[in-house]
Specification:
Layout lengths: L4 E6 L6 H13 L4 E5 L5 H12 L4 H26 L2 E5 L2 H11 L4 H12 L6 E6 L2 H9 L12 H17 L4 E5 L4 H15 L3
Parallel strand pairs: 1-3, 1-4, 2-3, 4-5
Helix pairs in contact: 2-3, 3-5, 4-7
The structure holds thymidine-5'-diphosphate (TYD).
The site of thymidine-5'-diphosphate has 12 residues, from helix 4.
Length: about 200
């Protein structure tokens, strides 16, 4: 049986990370082999690309091509083999982030993104996407407590409003794979929504 591909999305400050670890632990307790990975990144090559994308100034086309190049390497070297082995793959961000950040945030052409998505993924899509939804205002408050910001975290609230709208458009286009999580509450309240979605979907 091929494994399940689960991705985690949301604007910076939505608080995905600790829940990814908790979900990995819960799945392992139930006997799954779990691979936790992230984008941009997940392979030695893609992690080098991540450094550039997060810190080196570049235009929107360069940024877009780099995230898809990193994704191609990540898919072929890590994600596809893991799914073929039957592992559950938990990936912190995937192509919805490109539609949200490069498409929504930067205003990059969505038709070009769709074309790149087809070339790079050859039909591969996440089975389940947890979208941690949060207002840009609340996310900005949470980010203030965080460490030195990268190129995206330095953007203003209007940018993150557009990113959030970009995620909403993806959810509206493919509602069957999205589980929308209200990320405004306390950690426990957020976790219970994830656990409930896992129960309801029969994804444990
Ligand atoms: P993230 O993975 O949330 O890392 P951290 O929690 O360590 O800050 O952030 C990665 C950043 O990369 C995030 O701001 C969104 C951005 N990004 C894109 O712009 N496009 C993409 O396709 C992906 C995967 C990420």
């Amino acid at each position: 049986m091929p494994g399940r591909f689960i991705t985690f999305e949301g604007i910076d400050g939505a608080g995905k990370s600790s829940h990814i670890e908790a979900l990995a632990a819960g799945l392992r307790e139930r006997g799954h082999h779990v691979v936790v990975t992230r984008e941009p990144g997940g392979t030695p090559l893609a992690e080098r690309v991540r450094e550039l994308v997060l810190h080196a100034p570049m235009d929107a086309l360069t940024e877009t091509l780099l995230v898809f190049a990193a994704r191609r390497d990540h898919l072929t070297a890590q994600i596809e083999p893991a799914l073929a082995r039957g592992a559950t793959v938990l990936c912190d961000r995937f192509t919805d982030a490109t539609f949200a950040y490069q498409g929504g945030g930067r205003g990059f052409d969505l038709a070009v993104l769709t074309q790149l998505e087809h070339w790079v993924q050859q039909g591969r899509q996440p089975d389940v996407t947890f979208w941690f939804d949060l207002s840009a205002e609340l996310a900005a408050q949470r980010r203030q407590a965080a460490r030195s910001p990268d190129r995206f975290e330095q953007q203003d609230e209007a940018f993150f409003e557009r990113v959030r709208a970009g995620y909403a458009a993806r959810r509206d286009a493919q509602p069957q794979r999205f589980a929308v999580i209200d990320a405004s509450g306390e950690r426990e309240a957020v976790w219970s929504q994830i656990a409930a979605a896992m129960d309801k979907g029969g994804w444990w």
